[in-house]
Write a structure and sequence with these properties.
CATH architecture of the largest domain: 2-Layer Sandwich
Shape: globular
Bound molecules: adenosine-5'-diphosphate, magnesium ion
Order of helices and strands: HHEEEHHEHEHEEEHHHHHEHEHHH
Strand order of the largest sheet: 3-2-1-4-5
Largest sheet: 5 strands, mixed
Structural class: alpha/beta
CATH superfamily of the largest domain: ATPase, nucleotide binding domain
CATH class of the largest domain: Alpha Beta
Number of strands: 10
């Protein structure tokens, strides 16, 4: 049994890491399906998690004065470039969104997204440099790029461009993990310093997880979604309500929810009887669909109906987050000694963290934590402090890439540009069980799912990935 688990470990790792690609796949009605991956998004255990290389593989910028980094992001459907100084000043940034492009397909088409990145990247880079007051890449001190996880063919556009720029101008190069860049964004944007350790709630289109963030490059997974990510659920419900979904349906659904009444449509809070830190949103999305289908035509035609659905969905989705966070706060209190640290700051990052209602509710949750339960302290009496980047820096952008590289370079870490390839699948960190020395065991029901996955893989024809690149995802 133990041997079987060991043999299946690399499979689980590569399966899990495909989530981001699936997020983009899932945001369409095309033929690409979960069958290529098969495992729930909650399967986080494995060995190939993110560990930054130690030492400077491609040199370091001068450390005796502030240095500048050019950061490039092309992992999904936003072409983002920024120049950030090591003291946290954003010197210049530019972003080309593909929202309009993907709107007509009802989701991200990987092949279309790749071509759009290729078309936009030089222009966006030039714009970011211009806004930073720099003439060319020769004027920055290092070049950084997201190398994973994400859509492989999109990642490669940014990676190849960044490598060429770093080599041409003999600049240090940093390969950035997209999810870590979201996490570290909180340390750039906060008014007060955000020191490690902290608890991170990462909520994006492809991921939903709770992490113990102990240091740059050291994040442990406390819980993650068993099925859909929160952003994915927003996107799917937005589609059910015929809202615009290009670039993600979250903003449109949030706007509509403002006109609705939370609770007007009865929906169950997911996993409300399960006391753990995992998430699930697939059942909630199905419940929304059923509620719409069950409603008679007259009520559905009322202008308030869609707004009520949106408000009810959002309310229940956030209630689910709140419940998981309460367990996480409890866990931090109890397990602090074992972990060797007791966080008292909650960082919320990723695209969905731009949501104003989510920010308001999680602020209230932190303010209501009993003072003294943890070390830190929120401003309004709670023991937990909430840190969320400004909304525009929650969704994918070049600033987060440049800043993640600043964090690495300050620690003396850079990477060799030559030969660097992208990693479409790349877990951020191991399970928290590895920190406490517990043996990681496969999640319940894992073996049955693994058998299904292996059957799916056996049926996958070679070259399928390339074919998928040109299918609606
Ligand atoms: P990715 O998941 O590709 O890394 P982001 O981190 O930018 O991309 O997250 C995009 C996701 O965030 C989408 O699912 C989008 O619907 C969601 N999102 C963005 N803004 C909001 C919002 N205001 N409310 C809810 N969801 C949002
Ligand atoms: Mg993202």
């Amino acid at each position: 049994m133990a041997l079987a688990a060991l043999l299946l470990l690399p499979l689980a790792v590569s399966m899990r890491a495909g989530v981001r690609l699936l997020r983009c796949s899932a945001s369409s009605r095309g033929p690409a399906s979960r069958a290529h991956v098969g495992l729930p998004k909650g399967v986080e255990w494995g060995r190939q998690y993110h560990r930054p290389a130690s030492g400077a593989a491609s040199g370091l910028p001068p450390q005796d004065k502030p240095f500048t980094v050019l950061g490039i992001e092309t992992s999904c459907d936003d072409t983002g470039v920024a120049v950030v100084r090591s003291d946290g000043t954003i010197l210049g940034e530019a972003l080309a969104s593909q929202a309009a492009l993907h709107e007509e397909f009802g989701g991200v088409m990987p092949g279309v997204a790749r071509d759009a990145h290729a078309e936009a990247l030089d222009r966006v880079t030039a714009e970011a440099l211009k806004r930073a007051g720099l003439a060319s890449v020769a004027d920055v001190d290092a070049v950084a790029v997201t190398v994973g996880p994400g859509l492989e063919i999109c990642l490669r556009v940014g990676c190849e461009s960044a490598k060429a720029l770093a080599l041409e101008h003999a600049k240090p190069f940093v390969a950035v993990h997209h999810l870590e860049a979201h996490v570290l964004m909180a340390r750039l944007a906060a008014a007060e310093p955000v020191d490690f350790p902290f608890l991170t709630l990462l909520v994006s289109g492809g991921h939903c997880m709770l992490l113990l963030s102990r240091a740059v490059g050291e994040h442990y997974v406390i819980g993650s979604t068993l099925d859909d990510a929160l952003g994915e659920a927003y996107d799917k419900v937005a589609r059910l309500l015929d809202l615009p979904v290009g670039g993600g349906g979250g903003p449109a659904l949030e706007a509509l929810a403002r006109d609705g009444s939370a609770g007007a449509v009865a929906l169950p809070v997911p996993m409300s009887r399960k006391k753990n830190c995992d998430f699930s949103f697939a059942g909630l999305k199905t419940a929304v669909r059923r509620a719409i289908e069950k409603t008679d035509d007259a009520r559905r035609a009322e202008p308030s109906f869609n707004a009520d659905v949106a408000a009810s969905f959002q309310d229940v989705a956030i209630s689910h987050l709140e419940q998981r966070l309460r367990y996480a706060f409890e866990l931090c209190e109890k397990a602090g000694d074992e972990w060797g640290c007791r966080p008292s700051t909650l960082v919320v990052s990723g695209g969905v963290a731009a949501n104003a209602e989510l920010r308001r509710r999680l602020q209230a949750l932190c303010d209501a934590t009993p003072a003294g339960a943890a070390d830190g302290g929120g401003d309004d009496g709670g023991s937990w402090r909430l840190v969320v980047p400004p909304p525009r820096l929650c969704t994918d952008n070049g600033v987060m890439v440049a800043w993640a590289a600043v964090e690495s370079l300050r620690l003396g870490r850079s990477h060799a540009a030559e030969g660097r390839d992208v990693r479409a699948r790349w877990p951020l960190g191991p399970s928290i069980a590895q920190l406490t020395g517990e043996v990681e065991v496969p999640p319940k029901g894992y073996h049955a799912r693994t058998a299904k996955v292996m059957r799916a893989i056996a049926n996958t024809k070679p070259g399928k990935a390339e074919v998928d690149a040109d299918q609606p995802a």
